[in-house]
Amino acid sequence: MKSGGYYDNISSAGPGLDRVKAWLRAFAGDAPAAEQRSMQHPTYPCFPGLANRPFPPVETAPGALLLERSIDVIREEYLALRDEDLLRYTPPSMDKYWGVYLFAHMGVDTEALTRRCPRTSQLIRSLPRVCLDYPWGDALFSIHASRSHLAAHCSIDNLRVRCHLGIRIPEGCRIRVGSQTRQWQEGRSLLFEDSFEHEVWNEGSERRAILIVDFWHPDLTDLEIEAISAGFRKKEVRSLFLLERLAMLERPPEPHIRHIQAQVLAQQHDPRVQEYWR
Questions:
Q1: Phi, psi (degrees; rounded to nearest 5) at 153
Q2: Residue 40: helix, strand or coil by DSSP?
């Protein structure tokens, strides 16, 4: 970001990007990071001035309510998927099978590869403040095996609010975020911030299935979102962690890898990248 001019462009910008400036200085080690809350330990420095909460009210992300209204369409397309349509996600924190159907991965539209769920994909991309251009924002069907456990961990940043829409929720499923534990409900959205330590259990006898969609934190301004997206959309930035994240997929298909790499290269021409990295 420094060698490519992005850091200097942000530093010389107006007061509307003062919080982004502070965040970049914390990345560079030139200033202290924003204070973290209890049990909040993201990989990146905390972005300053955001009201982070383990479980925000669902109204925090209007798109989460729109997903609830479309549960019938979403469930229908999920049920039409075959096991071979799913990729296996294998982070060290998961002890059993974790299947995923990716709509957006690393800032790239990946549903375009298979087109198995076109109505759900179109709906997701129409949602207000959906976080898909940023490489740590995700949209996917997430399927956990019965009697599985996702160990406690924190995510990468405090910039997003994550929505879980319940699709198939057997008895014995729960999620802990910080010190609070909740259960999913079929057809209902649950919001949480994954910068806080979180842990998931499926103690039931069937698979648990949810739709995950990330939204930008409501306290971020449109200008801040534009600047952050441009910073992480640059090919050289995503290349720092692209292969590492792809490695968490068990034997990702070669077309999937080629598609993501090609789109990352094509997105170099995004006007936002051109503006902020000139």
A1: -160, 165
A2: strand
- What radius of gyration do the chain's Cα atoms show? 18
For 191-236, write each residue's pLDDT tens digit: 999 999 999 999 999 999 999 999 999 999 999 999 999 999 999 9
Tokens at 176, concatenated: 């802990």
Q: Can you point out the beta strands (E) in 193-248?
A: 198-202, 208-216
Q: Please, where are the H alpha helices in 127-221? A: none
Query: Three-state SS for 112?
Result: helix
Measured over the CA atoms of residue 158, residue 163, residue 168 and residue 169, the dihedral's sign is: positive
Distance CA 106, CA 266 (A): 14
Q: What pTM value is reported for the model?
A: 0.97
Taking alpha carbons only, the member of 3, 49, 37, 47 closest to residue 156 is: 47
Q: How many CB atoms lie under 10 A from the CB of residue 235?
A: 14
